[in-house]
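Check out one such.
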Amino acid sequence: MQASNFKLGAGEISRNGRFFNDSNKAELESLMDKAGLEVLEIFETSDAREDRGEEKWINVIARK
């Protein structure tokens, strides 16, 4: 099994000098399909850090 997570959004972005690749459900499903992976679950979570609860993450669990 493979698990990955991304900030919820779309596309590549630079924040404070750091590079991020945000994603959403449709992008993850397409990416996993192209990689030949079967998606088992996609779900959203809130950031666990107290001062960032409004930030959302998208998580995927897949297998070959």
Notes: The first strand starts at residue 2 and ends at 7. The chain has one domain: 2-63.
